[in-house]
């Protein structure tokens, strides 16, 4: 079985992920997970610069070529749409030549956002109040 077809599901009760591949368990995903669970999230086929696998729902920091001479950094969510994985608010596709895949670092996920609050109660990552944080699962 290909390593590309790995998945995970989040248990809200246990506050942890269960990782599996196609065919694990009776219905294709692990059985006996206590409490409500998230939607299934797929592995992108990419690992970050620390060799951590990158899944849908991860929050990553990465770099991209903004112009011929400028490299910009961005933080954003990973999501899957129409057969392609996208990164960040600027919607960089994993196959975009301006996207610098070697720069990707997983810094959290939608269930455990990387938010740190400043003295005003705003997130230091997304610069919004924590209740409106773009990285929190809705």
Please summarize what this structure is.
Helix content is 0%, strand content 42%. It has 138 residues and is mostly beta strands.
Task: Give structural notes.
This protein is mainly β and 138 residues long. It has one domain. Strands 8-7-6-5-9 form a 5-stranded antiparallel beta sheet, with no helix packed on it. Strands 2-1-3-4 form a 4-stranded antiparallel beta sheet, with no helix packed on it. A hairpin with a 4-residue loop joins strand 1 and strand 2. It is flat. The mean pLDDT is 78.
Topology:
Layout: E1 6-11, E2 16-21, E3 41-47, E4 53-55, E5 58-65, E6 71-81, E7 84-87, E8 92-93, E9 99-109
Antiparallel strand pairs: 1-2, 1-3, 3-4, 5-6, 5-9, 6-7, 7-8
Indicate the overall shape: flat
- Could you give a short account of the major beta sheet? 5 strands, antiparallel
Alpha-carbon distance between the two ends: 33 Å
Number of helices: 0
Beta percentage is 35-45%
Mean pLDDT over the residues: 78
CA radius of gyration is 16 Å
Name the strands of the widest sheet in spatial order.
8-7-6-5-9
Please give the share of residues in helix.
Answer: under 10%
Total number of domains: 1
Task: Please identify the structural class as seen in this structure.
Answer: mainly beta
Return residue spans where pLDDT drops below 50 for at least 5 consecutive residues: none
| Topology, number of strands | 9
Order of helices and strands: EEEEEEEEE
């Amino acid at each position: 079985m290909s390593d590309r077809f790995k998945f995970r599901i989040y248990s809200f009760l246990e506050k942890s992920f269960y990782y599996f591949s196609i065919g694990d368990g009776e219905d294709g995903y692990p059985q006996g997970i206590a409490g409500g669970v998230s939607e299934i999230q797929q592995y992108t086929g990419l690992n970050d610069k620390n060799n951590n696998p990158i899944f849908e729902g991860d929050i990553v920091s990465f770099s991209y070529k903004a112009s011929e001479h400028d490299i910009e950094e961005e933080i954003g969510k990973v999501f899957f749409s129409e057969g392609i994985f996208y990164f960040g608010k600027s919607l960089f596709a994993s196959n975009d030549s301006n996207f610098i895949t070697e720069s990707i670092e997983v810094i959290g996920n939608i269930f455990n956002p990387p938010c740190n609050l400043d003295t005003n109660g705003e997130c230091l990552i997304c610069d919004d109040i924590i209740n409106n944080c773009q990285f929190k699962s809705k």
